[in-house]
Structures are given as structure tokens and as C-alpha cells.
TrEMBL record:
Belongs to the enoyl-CoA hydratase/isomerase family. It comes from Scopulibacillus cellulosilyticus. CDD domains: crotonase-like. It holds the Pfam family ECH_1. This is Enoyl-CoA hydratase/isomerase family protein. The keyword Lyase applies. The keyword Transmembrane does not apply. SUPFAM superfamilies: ClpP/crotonase. Coiled coil: none annotated.
Length: 258
């Protein structure tokens, strides 16, 4: 792929930044933009020096959904052949922690993108919702599944069927977001949190994320067996030796991700 047209991405102090950059259309996610996001995520995931990834919007929104103009004339066969959701699936396969910093609208595919992240920092002006019902469709990139797992069937059905916008304080109330902060400090707070995670042993973060995701999907017994294996696995890392040695020597640990 050539130079990205709809996003900007850069790395600084162990944090991989992805900025959605289609502000005039409230960062409406066309298919190329989703591919660019996935490419940047994949590159950061492979880059040893990147420990955490942070996605944010530019202009007055995070993202107001998939690009309606682009999909207005789609047919089922075109959609089947495009297989665009294979790209979306790759977002949930990223191993490193991904933080979404959400201000303004996070609607439809924009909400799905945020829900695919591991942490959501939201400004007080953030508005979440699935307006697809008003377009005669429904979410297609995990929205019904993730919202239901996150807030339960009763409330998820209400938001999905009304298509109304949820205030950030409501999203916080239902545990959909990690932190609710004033808009002017959103990016700083999200970055501060990313910097905090960047100091942690990357392999621990990786396996914690993997294990928590497993816990969402399987029964308690299976999840606990899985947890145990990942716990054992970390004892083969140098960071485990370093972390415990540093504790005994009463000094800060220097984690290297190995
Ligand atoms: C294409 C969009 C867009 C979108 C906004 N724009 N959202 N273009 N697709 N999803 C464009 C508008 O057409 C307009 O372009 C410009 O962005 C600014 O938007 P306005 O409507 O003028 O702003 P405002 O009045 O503040 O209203 C904001 C809004 C509204 C409430 C967010 O734009 C809106 O309802 N947008 C659509 C939201 C939506 O239905 N999202 C779900 C999409 S379906 P011009 O050229 O007129 O300036 C979906 C399915 C996902 O996401 C499936 C998986 C991929």
C-alpha cells in the first residue's frame, strides 16, 4: 500500500499513534481507510519498539460510522466478494494493548472501532450509538455482539433498536468506557495512560489481554485452564526474571519484552 490517504500514523516513546484523518466527513470510515487503519495496527503490532497503540480522531469527531455514500448501492454479492469484514477481524487479532481516545461522535462503524479497542478514553462530549437501524440496516462489524457482551441483552437491544445517541456519562455508567474526562485533557490523559502501559512488561500485557478475551468467550473452567497456561508461559520470559529480581533488590525493573 502507498502512503495512507485517510489516516496519519507515527511512533513516539513506545506509543504507536493512529489519527483518523478525514475530518470534513467526521472521519467516515471508507474501505480504504479501514485497510489503512489495519495496516498501521499490524505494523505497530510487529514493531518491537511499539508497546501500546492509541487511536484517535481529528476534527470534531472520532468517527461517524462507515461511509454511507460508499455503501449505499452495495449488493449482497458485492459485499460477499469484498469480504471487508476480514479486515475488521484483524483488528481484534492485534496482540498489543489498543486505546481509543474518543471525542465527539463514535457512531456505527466508529463505535465498533472503539469497541474493538481494549480501553476507551472518552471526552465528556463523546456520543456513542448505532444509528444503522435508521438506515434500514444494522451493525455488521461486531456492534451487536460487543455491545451485548458489554452491557447485557436488555440495554443493548434498546440502544440498537432505537439508534439513539448515548451520552458519554451513560456509556461510563454501563462500563463501556475506561475513563470519562473533560475534552481539553482527553488526548493527554489517553497518552499518559498509554505511557504507563508502555513501562509494563509487554509479554505480560499481551497474555493478560489474550486471557481476558478468552474469559469473555468461554466458561469459567476453560478460562481458568487457559489462564494457568499463560501464567506458566510467562516464567519462560526474561522479564519475569528481571521483575522478580528487581523486587528483591528493591530497584525499578527494566522490562525489555523478552
Ligand atoms: C458519509 C458522513 C457520515 C457517514 C457524516 N458524514 N457521517 N458521510 N458517511 N457515516 C458527512 C455528512 O454527510 C457531511 O458531509 C459531513 O460529514 C458533516 O456531517 P453533518 O451531518 O453536516 O454534521 P452534523 O449536522 O453535526 O451531524 C453529525 C451526525 C450526522 C449526527 C454524525 O452526520 C450523521 O447522522 N451521520 C451519519 C451517522 C450514521 O448513520 N452512522 C452509521 C453509518 S452505517 P457534507 O458533504 O454534507 O458536508 C455504519 C455501518 C457499519 O457505520 C458497518 C460496518 C462497517
Amino acid at each position: 500500500m502507498g502512503k495512507p490517504e485517510f489516516i496519519k500514523s507515527w511512533q513516539q516513546n513506545g506509543i504507536g499513534f493512529i489519527e483518523l484523518n478525514r475530518p470534513k466527513l467526521l472521519n467516515a470510515l471508507n474501505r480504504q481507510m479501514v485497510s489503512e487503519i489495519v495496516s498501521a495496527l499490524t505494523e505497530f503490532d510487529r514493531d518491537h519498539d511499539t508497546r501500546v497503540i492509541l487511536i484517535k480522531g481529528s476534527g470534531r469527531a472520532f468517527a461517524a460510522g462507515a461511509d454511507i455514500d460508499e455503501m449505499a448501492h452495495d449488493t449482497p454479492i458485492k459485499l460477499e466478494l469484498l469480504n471487508q469484514f476480514a479486515e475488521w477481524d484483524r483488528i481484534s487479532q492485534i496482540k498489543k494493548p489498543v486505546i481509543a481516545a474518543v471525542h465527539g461522535f463514535a457512531l456505527g462503524g466508529g463505535f465498533e472501532l472503539a469497541l474493538s479497542c481494549d480501553f476507551i478514553f472518552a471526552a465528556e462530549n463523546a456520543r456513542f450509538g448505532f444509528p444503522e437501524v435508521n438506515l434500514g440496516v444494522m451493525p455488521g462489524a461486531g456492534g451487536t455482539v460487543r455491545l451485548t457482551k458489554a452491557m447485557g441483552r436488555t440495554k443493548a437491544l434498546e440502544w440498537l433498536c432505537t439508534g439513539e445517541q448515548m451520552e458519554a456519562s451513560v456509556a461510563f455508567h454501563y462500563g463501556l468506557i475506561t475513563r470519562l474526562v473533560p475534552e481539553e485533557v482527553l488526548f493527554n490523559e489517553a497518552e499518559r495512560f498509554a505511557a504507563k502501559l508502555a513501562q509494563k512488561p509487554p509479554l505480560s500485557l499481551r497474555l493478560i489481554k489474550d486471557t481476558v478475551n478468552k474469559a469473555v468467550d468461554v466458561n469459567v473452567y476453560e478460562a481458568m485452564q487457559y489462564e494457568r497456561k499463560n501464567f506458566y508461559l510467562l516464567f519462560s520470559s526474561e522479564d519475569q526474571k528481571e521483575g522478580m529480581k528487581a523486587f528483591v533488590e528493591k530497584r525499578p525493573a527494566n522490562f525489555r519484552g523478552q
